[in-house]
Each structure stands twice: as C-alpha cells, then as structure tokens.
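Handout for the seminar on molecular recognition.
Each group receives one record of this type.
Step one: identify the two inputs.
Step two: read the structure output and locate the region that could contact phenylalanine.
Step three: write two sentences on what you found, then compare them with the reference statements printed after the record.
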Amino acid sequence: MEQKEQWSSKIGFILASAGSAIGLGAIWKLPYVTGMSGGGAFILLFVILSLLIGFPLLLAEFIIGRSTQKEAISAYKQIAPGSKWHWIGYLGVVTCFILLSFYSVIGGWIIQYIVFGLTGQVGGGNVDYETLFTQSVTSPVLSVGAQALFMIITIIVVGKGIQTGIEKASKFMMPALFILFIVLIIRSLTLENAIEGVSFLLNPDFSKLNSESILFALGQSFFLLSVGVSVMVTYSSYLPKGESIIQPAFSVVAMNLFISIFAGLAIFPAVFSLGFEPAAGPGLLFIVLPSVFEKMVFGTIFLLIFLILFLFATLTSAFSLLEIVVASVSKGKGGRNRLSWMIGSLVFMVGIPSSLSFGVWSDFSLFGKSIFDAADYLVSNILMPIGALLISIFVSYRMKKSVLKSELIQKSKYSLLFEVWYFLLRYVVPIVIIVVFLDVTNII
Ligand code: PHE
C-alpha cells in the first residue's frame, strides 16, 4: 500500500489552507460586492460573520479531517457508518466542481492581462481598460484559451501531490502575495483624495444593508474561508494526528481577514481618487487597478507583478478545489496525476459556457441571470450555505461532545474556547443560516 500523503510541516498546512481561503473572494469579489453594497457596513458584517460563523465551521471541518485522516466522503463514512451523512461529502465535491468551472474563467482573465503586460499592451499611460476588459471577456478564443491554461497549471500542481505540488507552491506564493499587497496599499493611500476611499470603507452606512446583502455577506463568509464544501476536511486529513488545529484555524481566519481589508484599502482609495464608480461590479479590479498602476513610476512592472500575485492567490484556491475532487475519487490509492488530468479536463469543459456567457452567449439566461452568474449564485448562495448548515449539524449533534473536546483541545486552558465554539456551532451557526436563508427565499 502507498504511504499516506501528508504536509511536511504545520506552516505548510497553514499556508496551503490560507491559500485556499485567500483568492478571488477576498481580492476580487469582496471588493466589488462591498462597492455595490455601501462600503463599510458590509465589511463589518462580513468580519462579524467570519468570526461567529466561518471560524467555528473551519474548526469543525478541521476536526473531521484530522481525526479520520480521510478525504471528504470517506471521512463522514468513518464517523457515521451506515448513514447518509457522507452525502455532505458528495455535496462538497459537486459544489467544488461547479465552483472551479467558473473560477477558472476569472483565472483566465488574469492570465490574459499578464500576456497583455508582457506584450506591451498595457501600461504606458493611455490604455482604455474598459475597452480592453470588454475585449478580453467577450472574445471566445481568448477567454476559453486562457481558461484552459489556468486549468492546466492547476492540474499539473495537483497532479504532483500534496508536498511537492500544493505545499511547495503555496509556501512560495503566499508570502509573496502579502508583500506586494503592502506595496500596493502604500501607493493607493498616497494618491490624492485617498481619504474618501478610506472613509467609504470605514464609515458604515447601515441603511444600505438589507436581507439580500446579509445573505450575501453570509455567503461570502463561507466562500472566503472555503468552508461548507469539505475542502478543509480534505486538507486537514493530511495533517499528522497529534497536530493542534486551533492555532492553524486562527491563523487562516486572521490572514483571510487581513487580506480582505488590505484589498479594500488598496482598491477603494484608488477608485475614489481616480474618479471611478465604487459600484462598478465585476470589472472593478480589471479596469480600476491597472489604471492605478499606470500612475506609478515603473507602473507596468508593478502591474505585472501584481497580476502574477493575483494569479497565485487564485491558483492556490483552485488547487484546493481540484484536490477535493481528485482525492475523493482516488481515495489515497494513487493515480493522482492521471485523475487530475481527467477531472481537470471535465471541469474545464463544464466551465466553457460560463466563459462564453460574457460574450457570444450573453443573451442566454438562466433564472434571469447569465450562466456565470447563475452558477455563482447556485454555489455561493445555495449550495455553500446548505453544506455549511449540514456540517454544523453533523459535528455538533452527531459527534459526541467528549470526543470533540478531546479532538480540539489538549490543554485545559482552552476549555472556555471549546464551550464557546460548541455553542456557536450547535445553536448560532444553524439558526443564523436557516433564518437568513428562509428570509431571502421569502418563505417567512
Ligand atoms: N476561498 C476561495 C476564494 O475566496 C474560494 C473557495 C471556496 C475555494 C471554497 C475553495 C473552496 O476565492
């Protein structure tokens, strides 16, 4: 039998998990949704939900994975044999499959911009990024081609395995991401009128919040931490049994919150300073940020570095999405490279309509949304909350409290933390999810 795969170090595990968490959500989606939902109030709501809902769920997934040492589906089977609970694992695998299919579309846009940078089509001070963006997303050849490239990189890394693939890549990509962000924030904050952007972010306008934006923030708190889909179950199953999970969970949540706020601080001051609309929507990052770099000395080089790091953040999330599907099929029996190619190719094909929905298929609509938006809505607002709800119920009602306690804490000084976590997971998480969900779907 093959040796079971494991992370080579705790920091490797933390960086890979933070890599899964930090991605398009923090850098692209949160900023533009915040822009459309009135700024600071939305961010505040997101921070609160991350701590009260996301964090307990992250710990719950870590417990399932580390205690069973198994990938998403088998882990539930081992804890609750002969029951249907392992359907949570299937739900997670399907959700990640769909998610990666449209995630790779945006990954492709980033790759296109990198190519533009290398071939001198961006930078130089007089590029109309609005037109460039429209061209990139509407051209079927460019967008599908770049999406394929993004998937190929993901497939190769996941095919290499945990230590030599995902861990090695994350250990390099994540620290680099932090450093570049700081450079970017300094630039953005020193632009004229930058303060307007800061106050947009820090002065919450609660009147802009409604039940829809609350569901959105709730969805984001799952999406940004990669919880509710058992990705973190799979990742923590590669952790040696005796390893603590509390500190890694804190680190992942903290890094994720930092980057989310960093992203806002890098983007909004620039948006206001350059006279753009904060509510620009999905194009915010691809249109506004390049314009910011245009104003810098050596702007093209900075833009390129930023794009590469943005790509890294997206890739490290994509690795986890493909990994959970590959791991659930291979079940530790090997053949990972071949499976990675097979599954990755399927994901790519399923993602093509999402890509085309920005261009040639833009007239086609599902439930009043484009294919891309419908897939995103299904994943972020329906499948992830359902997955999160089921995981919280599974861990807090199906698993024994004494087992959970011994899994979670080795030292008695954490007893209070355990009780708080248990309470949140058993009562607060499910109730909040159900209430928000029912309200938004207008059932109550
Ligand atoms: N957390 C990732 C992001 O913010 C998305 C993701 C969700 C990745 C679920 C894996 C699992 O971009």
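Reference statements: The pocket of phenylalanine is lined by residues 20-21, 23-26, 96, 99, 223-224, 226, 229, 231, 317, 320-321 (CB under 6 Å). The mean pLDDT is 87.
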